[in-house]
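G.,

No rush on this.
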Amino acid sequence: MTAAGHLALEDELKRRQQIERPRIIQAIAEARSHGDLSENAEYHSAKEAQSLNEGRIAELEDKLSRSEVIDVSKLSGATVMFGATVTLIDEDTEAEKTYQIVGETEADVKSGRVSITSPTARALIGKKVGDTVEVTTPGGGKSYEILKVSFQ
């Protein structure tokens, strides 16, 4: 994953541990003070929130412990690889698109970051400027020409 993706996961983990966990514990304590727990919807809701938060904390800790951080700014070259920012032109519509190839956890197509495992990224890996790539997506086939490859 990229350094930015790693930092985002660390920030979420810190928020969940230092802000969400105490807030949920307080909600459980308050709901407990209302009496009978068997019919206490607030208590059950708070316990469910606690379960979801603790599950996400465990997932984040696992991802962070197994992650390999790659500093994209230190990469270079003319070939598309992990971390590359690729400018493409759709051969059908002439629309220009720019994508950065990132790890699965940090992918967000709307902000121009595609997962290394996505059909688009898999088709682009190993290609150079001027190459044409055919991408088979759930919405059908697309044809792109690579205009620019950079590492930012």
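When you get to it, here's the other one too:
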Amino acid sequence: MLKNLAVGAVAALGLASLSPVAKAEDPIRIGSFLSVTGPAAFLGDPELKTLELYVHQLNENGGLLGREVQLVHYDDSGDASKARTFVTRLLRQDKVDLIIGGSTTGATMAAVPVIEQARVPFISLAGAETISTPVKKWVFKMPQSDRQAARRVLTDMKERGLTRIGLISGTGGFGASGRNVTLEEAKAMGIEVVADETYNPKDTDVTAQLTRIRNTDGVQAVLNFDFGQGPAIVTKNYKQLGIELPFYQSHGVASDSFLKLAGDAAKGLRLPATALLVADTIPDSDPQHGVVTGYKKAYEDRYNSSVSTFGGYAYDGFQLAVQAIKQAGSTDPAKVRDALESIQGYVGVTGTYNLSAKDHMGLSYDSFRILEVKDGHWTLVE
């Protein structure tokens, strides 16, 4: 019943013969466009599985406002032009009530003008600051921003006495945005970026760039800002070159799939991530303990695979959408949008959300935990 649907199919989760959901009214339709295949599949696959899981659970428990919930999903394969086309279809043809999606920054930003014009609430699962800053009336997002990730990493570096760093980043949308905010945050924090290198996300070797960073006088640590295959290649090349400087990645690789790609080369690296990756070690007293362990168990029991930070974004996006629709008492777009904007103190997998008219993300930078790879696993840095 929770099959991975083909492009354009409706996830009619909660069929009449199996669900207690009333059929007197039309279903509530939640649209989604995610990168389930292609280079960003490690983002979109757990996101879609999470949405399918919780739509199913919701329908099994009576639906939403007494109505069945349907998920209408399209796979954009990480292609921004496809994302724009699919969002147009969701709005004009499928008549969805709300959209959760955008695995990548490029796909999200391609969709934003269409969504803003249509005046339908949109919850993005991508990370770049530009998605929610400046605030766009109909656009919300779940992950912490790349600026917050940069600030969290730089804070950890400074606490370790590392104030002269090398930066290497991808030239795609996420990497380029991450590079820009890192340079700005470093300057504000009194950290000097003494080497600044980039690579194409399709590059298969970055030893030349890493060699230049290694040979830079006074460099004390290195940060790689990107997502996808690139960071795993950077990590392997880093080890191959025998660089012994402290090494950091961004939140763009916060998943077990990255550890599998990078292998032993990931030993000792640090990154900012959510509590989800160390769910089994956070104390019962932690406000996120219940929601993080609950999501982890539900997902892993259903799919027999590890949770990822990215699926957690989808969990939070869906739960906030449900809360907003309940609060609005209808699917009226303006009422749902206003309800989303008013949510305060929601404790999610990613952090505690406090949304407002001035903040459509609602997370503070300290919602990030600093993790380090030890013995092939993520561990919390105390």
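Residues 18 and 60 are 8 Å apart (CA to CA). The chain is about 40% helix and 20% strand.

Enjoy the weekend,
O.
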